[in-house]
Fold this protein.
Amino acid sequence: MGSYENFQLLLHSRIKRRNLIIGAGAFTGLMIASQFPHQRAIARGRFSKYPFTLGVASGEPYPSSVVLWTRLAPEPLNGGGMPPLNVPIRWEVSTDAKMRRIVAKGTEFATPEMAHSVRIVVDGLQADTWYWYRFNVGNYASPTGRTRTAPLPESYLNRFNFALASCQNYQQGYYTAYKYMAQEDLNLVVHVGDYIYEGGIGANAVRQHNSPEILTLEDYRNRYALYKADPDLQAAHAAFPWIVTWDDHEVENNYANDISEVDNEPDQNRAIFLQRRALAYQAYYEHMPLRPFSRPRGSDMQLYRRLSFGNLATFNVLDTRQYRTDQPCGDGTKERCPENFDPQATITGKRQEDWLFDGLNRSETKWNILAQQVPIAQRDMTPGEGGTYSMDKWDGYLASRDRLTDFLEKRRPSNPISLAGDVHSHWAMDLKTDFDNPRSPIVGSEFVCSSISSGGDGSDTNPTVQAYLPDNPHIKFFNGQRGYARCELTSRMWKTDYLVMSEVTTQFGTISKRASFVVENGRLGVQQG
């Protein structure tokens, strides 16, 4: 029996009827429950164990509002351990860390349909201001989190700092990098995917997953609980607001739209994969500080969006998984094939591409950021004659990339910067109209961050990569250690510091700055900092 047949049997055996989320009708129960919350509410929360085991988080900062998040989970790895009832959670926001000057408060019901998670959109806040927040249920108080609203549109900013992170495989290392990140002077954290990994229990793991490969809604919820229970990850969430987007492992490795990594050409198998995708999207929404417009409808979820920060930065947050066509020539590292040049192939989908170009065309901020999953710049991985490329990245979707670089060359939005992750290593690269011609115009810059833990300790250099770098003169920097990127923006300059961990396979790793690169306002291209 093939791998997909095994997957299909396992999926059918493990997905319970109540867990299936197919189409808009899947939320009927949630809508009914939310219309009559008091009828199903616990009058007074009583818990045998501490219910805020997954910490707190905030995200999606606007000038006058921000999203606050928590989830009640006294038994986090056992479905949460909550009764099938609505529970009132009190929340409050203060202008001081000791929570003495309360400026907003209220009550929200945590419902079983949302795994007893809550998201509070707090309105009426002052722009560009730090706030502190916490939740209370029964006699228990959550940890206190800190968040910050965005500056007013077109307001002048002297400086804006954020961290870029991705790829945190629980089994392959500790999240010590987040401990150091939480101590930084940042306005924001941007996470570009692979927040969880869907795989089963690995051999020789640094620390183990809590189940075989996840397929059901309860599986995905328990996996998020495992990851979010990590104290270093909780510290980074509690310290800053986050902007998040997913990549593939939040569902399944290297999936493309409705196409599983395994062979699923028959329509019935695609339908089964869409069931899994719906469950995964639901769990992602339940555990991220996203705004309500992102709530999934069956197997669809609105994730691409735009956030601006004064006169300095606009983040165009992309989704390069949900709408892409299948990877050409397979999803490995291969030579070019005819499918690479298919003008109908797309990594973003047409609607998202049009939305991106329209936003870039209208933008009046100094730095225009594409916060997305996989590297845009070409990486020819064969030294000398010939070439091989990763078909899962923009390298596999030449028509999409050509449309983007042609747009950047012709319309010239101010200082376009791509941010990406996925490849478990640090890269600094120029974006060009023709990567095979060193004389072709530079149309933007790209900073790719390494993983928080995926891939284990890694190393500073890699002989295989070093061998092909001369064939890629637009690549200015590579490093194979774990870590994150710290970005500082002013009206004159963008600076990216690459932070690297000495090790992640123990909890004693230290962090250091490996390199810095800058982009000057009005001067496209990456320079040594």
Remarks:
- The longest helix spans residues 267-287.
- Confidence is low (pLDDT under 50) at residues 1-9, 12-39.
- Residues 88 and 328 are 49 Å apart (CA to CA).
